[in-house]
Design goal:
The protein has one domain (17-72). 32% of the residues lie in helices and 19% in strands. The protein has helices at 17-23, 57-72, and strands spanning 32-38, 41-47. The protein has a two-stranded antiparallel ribbon. The N and C termini lie far apart (35 Å).
């Protein structure tokens, strides 16, 4: 589904209620979206903030390795 959404002077956009519901962000306490720009387009994905202390050390280490590999490619 594609729709046109106005952008305010401050750069704010409002995601329509039906899209928020479909993405499940309307049920989150602190809803967030990950915004990625690729090839001149914006991609939005639901995101969640997780305290670093709650992420397993092995997961953090694998993320660091992936980031380091991307920096050398």
């Amino acid at each position: 589904m594609a729709i046109a959404i106005p952008i305010s002077k401050r750069g704010t956009v409002a995601i329509p209620p039906e899209m928020r519901k479909r993405l499940g962000v309307d049920q989150l306490q602190n809803p967030m979206l990950l915004v990625e720009e690729r090839d001149g387009k914006l991609y939005l994905e639901p995101a969640a903030a997780i305290p670093v202390r709650d992420i397993p050390k092995s997961t953090l280490q694998s993320w660091i390795k992936e980031d380091e590999k991307e920096m050398t490619d």
